[in-house]
Amino acid sequence: MQFEFSDEQQELRDSVRRFFERECPVTAVRAVIDAGTGYDPALWRKVGDGAFLATAIPEEYGGIGAGYLELCVVAEECGRVLAPLPTLSAIYQVAEYLMIAGSEAQKRRWLPRIAAAEAIGALALNEGVGEMRADRVAARVSGGRLIGEKLPVADGMAADFAIVAARDEAETLGFYLVELDAPGVAREAVETLDPSRGHARIVFSGAEAEPLGKGDRGWTLVEEIRDRAAVPAAFEQVGGADRALADARDYALGRYAFGRPIASFQAIKHMLADVYVANELARSNAYYGAWALSAGSDKLSLAAASARVAATAAFQRASASNIQVHGGMGFTWEYDCHLYYRRSAYLALALGGPSLWEDRLIEFRRAAAA
Amino acid sequence: MNFDDTPEEAVFRAKARQWIADNAPHELDAELRASTEGKLRLTSVDPLVAARDWQRRKSEAGWATPHWPVEYGGGGLNSIQRVIWSEEEGLYAKLSQHFLIGVGMCGPTMMAWASEGQKRERLPKLSSGEEIWCQLFSEPAAGSDLAGIRTRAVRDGDDWVINGQKIWTSYAREARWGLLITRTDPTVAKHSGLTMFFLDMRSPGVEVRPIRQMNNEASFNEVFFTDVRIPDAQRLGAPGQGWEVALTTLMNERATLAGRVDTGFDELLDFCERLETGSNRRAIDDARVRSRLAQFAIRDSGLRFTAFRSISALSRGAQPGPENSIGKLVSAVVEQDMAQFALDLEGEAGLLADPALASDRGRFQSILLRSPSMRIAGGSDEILRNIIAERVLGLPADIRADKDVAFEDIPTAATAQRG
Ligand SMILES: Cc1cc2nc3c(=O)[nH]c(=O)nc-3n(C[C@H](O)[C@H](O)[C@H](O)COP(=O)(O)OP(=O)(O)OC[C@H]3O[C@@H](n4cnc5c(N)ncnc54)[C@H](O)[C@@H]3O)c2cc1C
Asked: Is B383 near ligand 1, meaning CB less than 6 Å away?
């Protein structure tokens, strides 16, 4: 047993952290928000050059083949700097769909391009308000043509292709690869809580759709991949929560009221102590998730749900407390507090919201206890 | 990162499991299962007899204080093996309550500060449960502010003479030895005038009186000292170094409390599986119940894995640090919240405290009444938050009214009244 990242993984963390500190200052995040691009293409290309996010993609498909612990290390650093990158869509999910369910040709076509940051894949499941469930998928494929509307689609504007959930003539739910620059695809950017990770509405009107793999995978694939994606997503949340705590601490040390730093007031100290505790619990749950994912453990579902629920709660608490510690400054556009708050909302809702994961967590704890 | 056993660890686990299968008091299983972390519900045997018996058996096989050096009664195990052992001990760990203070706090303090001869004499008996230890720290006027203690020790020849009073001393009646912090110099600042001893609880002049607790038990006590003599050889550290010695104890206290992170979540989950809330409906089927449970679950697993992480750090040679405050801070509140939640699910019958009538033999009622103590003992919630804020996050210390003041000149409630 060993409950820490290895020395090599810690070194990787240090070098990725230095990379992001250099290449992704908060001004870069703000530039994405101001320009409305939804992601940072220059940063994405540099990440591709370093192949940082390709650690879990096998070498034969252009990745590093190092594994998921390394991916989690990188994810935490992405979260820390609020990296405006299509991680949840292209890396944690679409690459997984391809690796797990794609045909050999589809893998060869897309995985190397994702690994090199030459292509972005989006995942198009949602069709409007309400928890994502199989019975809410109305998009339809017939004769190889897709008709339907997907909203919201993370990184839908930036993406070159999408994996789309749709039903065939026999009402069977399946997944299809669709190129987004092709005829029969109309897309527009939509306003979301976190403009540093763009989203789109995509309307398909007869776009060419190719079944993913043998086309024989049903809704369980969504759950399988969500479990896998939840772990690196939790590391992004943990990274963001740590950074929000560090910002709150720094501000509290520098801001004076009543003749003393506000950091010396117990109300502030205890609030930040509680944030620290929640962050540490989230980190510990996330480590378990990282192990379960990397080891292919049958405990992955429970570990992923635990990581996800704990990390969501921690990031929400940390980013809200950060605003509180900043007082009026915390409520301005100029200060960065809201960027963490916004990101915490996005990460809480991507992959299904907190109550969905709470429910899954208890389901799997029950199974583990039985 | 590996949460599974290596092949060698699996062999070790099998060995521990086999030993427990062959030696544990299985006849107590049902009663132990009905016991909560804090309260042994044994009627078939005297709990102390059962506890001592298990401790002795473990000790003979090297499992009692498995991480200690062999010459002090330990088993020489590394920290990972210790985790494995405690996972395997499971239910029977509930029999260790009487020894936790000795094993977790007094023992490590002795190991760091006593003479070699004293260690070889005392520690094996502490480890085997033959000699129970207590912690004589808190006083009526000094709890969180421990350095404010007033019990006096005055040098007299080869002895020290002790006068004063301790309070809240757990297991003082059962204890043979006590770790005693005293004031030897009231004219210097309060942290500077302290001296630590270990004391034979059978010394003349030691009087122990049980205190009735709010949950109607009496595991803690008042201890009075009237001209009690302690040989100078039983001094730990130099005169005036008592605070430093106490920090060894407190650091280990936190690590001990952090290591015991069974929140009782599995019992609550099981309770929700069984509790009928309608025809063909159980509490667990309710989405609100599951949502609350999930928030408890992440604390439960988070604490376990946080303890694992600090063990990984210890195995690389780190000292138990302030981050260990998390364990008790979280588990105490979670236990209280879980008890309140379970009682809510029981409806008005949640009031029933009679084990014969209450559901689960009054488990959650008993936890409800015990849990406030967990938030106070061993560093209150507020003190632990201060420790995290100051020592982990580096925030400023509280503003103090007693800084650089001679102990005898520090304001108290009494001087405030006199005006
Ligand atoms: C069940 C139980 C067993 C115990 N066993 C032992 C034992 O075996 N040996 C032993 O020596 N002691 C023992 N104790 C005593 C325990 O260590 C003290 O009760 C504890 O340190 C709190 O001290 P106090 O009771 O004097 O409360 P106080 O220190 O008076 O605290 C009262 C309240 O004020 C708050 N407070 C105090 N200082 C601060 C501060 N600086 N900032 C913010 N809030 C503050 C506290 O958090 C608390 O809420 C035991 C206590 C209990 C409940």
From this structure: yes
